[in-house]
Predict the structure.
Amino acid sequence: MIAPIERTLASLRTQTALWRKAGETIGVVPTMGALHQGHLSLARAARAECDRVIVTIFVNPKQFNDPDDLKNYPRTEEDDARKLESTGVDLIYVPDPEQIYPDGFATNVSVGGLTDMLCGASRPGHFDGVATVVSKLFLQTAADFAFFGEKDYQQLQIVRRMAADLDIPIEVVGCPTIREEDGLAMSSRNLLLSDRSRVYAPVLAEVMEEMRAQLLDGAALSEIVGDAQARVLAAGFNEIDYLELRDGRDLSLLDRAKPEARLFAAAWLAGVRLIDNMAV
Ligand code: PAF
């Protein structure tokens, strides 16, 4: 059965109040739609953990730097609702824009430090937009648990920091990246890849896997990153925003593998920006 769709905060709260009264726990999976197996795995994780599950779908204008990117972002609500059927979610919250940003909305949630590097360096304001909308979605749903993919690892750490700093009583759960058979990390943006680009896209993860093996063999990042970048570019990527080793907790830069180390990459392939990360 397709889960009911609510579009206003009032109707969402009418439902969540009933669940709360019955003593049920609530899990939320925030998304921007264009759902793929990665999102469905988050919904299933929520289903396994919580009495009630809400998936939110909201293409958040505040986190886009480029108006064309916002315009082109895939919007597939009917399909999304159908895909969620198999996961047994209880409610889909697709807020009308004024439910999130009513007239006069003037608040910005900005997390320091963690937002300056990696994707934050090339997308100014992006993570403020994410932190602002996610804090609203946490407060609107009053969920006990929130499920995020490790695919957007920096986002996950920022959301954790934001919830802790603002004392929002929610547990943020990170779930593993889901990959296509050829290793490409699942992302709604993959829909924007041409057939030709789709063939080359998995090279990014392939190169990262090789780097991981080299790092675990004792190599320093500085010794191997040049070759790795050259391989990514030779495969048809146009530009690399970053290919870095960082501590998974505070995202500080590393040169050698250690517990908690993660590789992070962002690169452009024919106008589509792909990101990936993996534990080393
Ligand atoms: O990861 C996403 O899809 C978005 O950044 C999120 C968390 C739904 C906020 O808009």
Notes: The longest helix spans residues 126-141. Residues 30-32, 60, 63, 130, 133-134, 152, 155 surround pantoate (CB under 6 Å). The two ends are 41 Å apart (CA to CA). Strands lie at 5-6, 26-31, 52-57, 91-93, 145-149, 171-175, 239-247, 261-269, 272-279.
